[in-house]
Amino acid sequence: xxxxxxxxxLLDCCALIFLSVYFIITLSDLECDYINARSCCSKLNxxxxxxxxxxxxxxxxxxxxxxxxIFLLNLPVATWNIxxxxxxxxxx
Length: 92
Fold this sequence. Notes:
Blueprint: H1 2-31, H2 37-45, H3 48-64, H4 68-91
Helix pairs in contact: 1-2, 1-3, 3-4
């Protein structure tokens, strides 16, 4: 069971790193005026919820599998993403 949790966690973290690089490239394109702000927001907004789900799943899996230290490392990022989503829902 632990091996499955860690393999899934590794794949999820790889996907989140890829997503972060995509965010940086898209924001760099916005800064260089290759794309406008509206298209940048539409490209990035569709990836916010998958990012939230990815971080939350890893944190919950580490909590369920009783890996407390790894859970505590993932908890601030998951909490920040949930907080950011709540603020976005309130402001809409």
